[in-house]
Specification:
By secondary structure, the chain is mostly helical. Among the domains are: 77-134, no CATH class; 137-198, no CATH class; 201-243, no CATH class. Helices cover 66% and strands 0% of the residues. The chain has helices at 6-27, 42-75, 94-97, 101-112, 117-134, 138-143, 149-163, 169-175, 179-194, 209-216, 219-222, 227-241. The radius of gyration is 49 Å and the shape is elongated.
Amino acid sequence: MNDIPAESEQSTHAETAERDFVVAEDAAPARPEWLPEKYKSGEDLAKAYKELESKLGTKEEDLRAQFKEEFDSSKNADRPESAGEYSLPDFVDDEAAVDNELLKWWAEQSFDNGFGQDKFEKGIEMYLQTMEAAAPDLDAEAAKLGENADQRIESASMFATKFFPDETMPAIERMMETHEGVIAMEAIQEALKDGSFTGDTAPAAGLSEDSLKEMMQDPRYWSKNDPAFVRQVEAGFKKLYGS
């Protein structure tokens, strides 16, 4: 067997290596034109994108938290430390306000909304103005009662105080703020004076059997929804027949 010269053998190896490189290069997938040079593959780019997305998301959450903190701090900058530390304005009676549920509610609402002392007072002022606008004009109502309005109002008020129980007085006082209310109270006084409006079971003078029977046809009697009226009819029969 003849020996191959060393130079020829080296040349053969070089040609084989070059051919293998060309084949390997042709067999490798072409690099996408859109892939940036710093990434070896699309997988590397996708991985980097996910990492960036995570970082951006974290920054966004941090920014939101920071914005909320700054907003809350700015919103509540003027409010007191607690709802109970608001000061009542001078035009509100401190003693009357101690157990006032509406004022407590407004203080809590003001605190929750971050209102300062000025807005707390403004809310109270606006409420009182609304109430005053809705309330009757006492001078105008008194004028409708005539020249002796003061005496009529005083007399009706004294009667109401004596006749009605204490728990009904707030409603009676609101009623007496209008001239119609004063007139109604005077009508009750007159009815009590002549006996036409009384809970007394004694029958009125001149009752006869026919008049008593006529009273029995009244819904107040047969429906039993007016006990005083029923007693008056029964008392009339007792007086007529002694039973």
